[in-house]
Every structure is written in C-alpha cells, then in structure tokens.
Design goal:
This protein is of the alpha/beta class. 21% of the residues lie in helices and 28% in strands. The model has no long low-confidence stretch (mean pLDDT 91). Bound molecules: inosinic acid (IMP).
Length: 184
C-alpha cells in the first residue's frame, strides 16, 4: 500500500520506501562485517518487525537463522503501558548463539530493556540490537542500539510494519498519522 492509498490519514511522510531500503542495506553491510564465520540468529519482535526482518534477511549476504517472539506492548493505544508480557516465546535455543534482536522502532525502550534482561539468562554468546527507527525518548534510557536505521521525531508513526489498531502495517513507507484518526 502506498501513501496515495491512505492520503487523508497521513499528516506527513517520514520515510519513503526508497529511504527505508537504503537504511536496511546499510544495516545489512554492518551486520555482515561483524558476523563473518558464524551464523547469527535474528530474533524479530512480532508483529511490527515482520517487514524489517523480511527485507533485512534477504539483504544479508551471509547465512542467518530466524526466530520470533511476541510480547504485548501498546494494544490499541498510542502510549506505552510499560507492561511487557510474553505472548509467544522463542523456539530456538540462544545458548552459544550470536543473537541480533530486530526491532521496527524503539520508543521508550521499555520493550527492548525487558528483552535484553530476559535474554541475559539464556546464555547467548552475544546479543546485539538492530532497529529501523528510534524516537528521542529512547536516548533517555540505557538501551544499547548496535545497528540503527533512522532517528525520527517524537510523533506517532505508522507503516512498514507499524500499526495503529492493526491498520497501516502494509504501508510501504513510514508516515505520521493524523491525530484526528486516533481521536487526538
Ligand atoms: P517501546 O517499548 O516504548 O520502545 O515501544 C515498543 C513498541 O511500541 C514498538 O515495538 C511498537 O510496536 C510500538 N510503538 C512505539 N512507537 C510507535 C509508533 O509511533 N507507532 C506505532 N507503534 C509504535
């Protein structure tokens, strides 16, 4: 789905699909440089990271494995609840693996710090973080991001996996949702 398909719901374009592709390619080159000679395990956080994972995985010129985790986050609201709960756990063991957490966006950083703490006990050889987007609040808390696509302003955005009440995930770019759409 393109911006013109949802024109009246989007206030401004944050990233076009071409810019996103460039950002993902840049992240892929950095990951390749750091992971020669072993097969990293990419862990996507459902559902938002599906698009980033799909494009990043295909852009990488090294073998990888993938697993998925689902945690509860915002529900249908646009504000972080701070509550993290495992909805679907991993199927592959992290023991001895070089793990890369793949995120769509790091906002408050709550989800990420919780995940990093949770993974600490699972004996991974290393854990790093790749995120397509980062909001300013993430810099206030201690969330280490190893691979970053773009810093974006503190607006509620949708597209490229990011939703509002499960809609707009299939928008090919990222845009600011008009507050009127969510009653703001
Ligand atoms: P955090 O825990 O505050 O860093 O945010 C974690 C999750 O909140 C992300 O993985 C997204 O699912 C969701 N989220 C944060 N900001 C936005 C946004 O602007 N639009 C849509 N979802 C968002």
């Amino acid at each position: 789905m393109e911006f013109e398909d949802v024109n009246s719901d989007i206030e401004s374009v944050v990233l076009t699909k071409e810019q996103i592709a460039e950002g993902i390619a840049r992240i892929a080159r950095e990951i390749e440089n750091n992971h020669t000679g072993h097969t990293p395990l990419l862990i996507g956080v459902l559902k938002g990271a599906v698009m980033v994972m799909a494009d990043l995985a295909r852009e990488l010129h090294i073998p990888i494995e993938m697993d998925w985790m689902a945690v509860s986050s915002y529900g249908a609201s646009t504000k972080s609840s701070g509550v993290v709960r495992i909805v679907k756990d991993l199927e592959i063991s992290l023991e001895g693996r070089h793990v890369i957490i793949v995120e769509d966006i790091v906002d408050s950083g709550l989800t990420l710090s919780w995940l990093l703490e949770n993974f600490e006990s699972r004996q991974a050889a290393s854990v790093s973080v790749a995120t397509l987007l980062r909001k300013p609040d993430a810099m206030k808390v201690d969330v280490p991001i190893d691979y970053l696509g773009f810093d974006i302003p503190n607006d509620f955005v949708v597209g490229f996996g990011l939703d509002y009440a499960e809609s707009y995930r299939n928008l090919s770019g990222v845009g600011v949702l008009k507050p009127a759409v969510y009653g703001g």
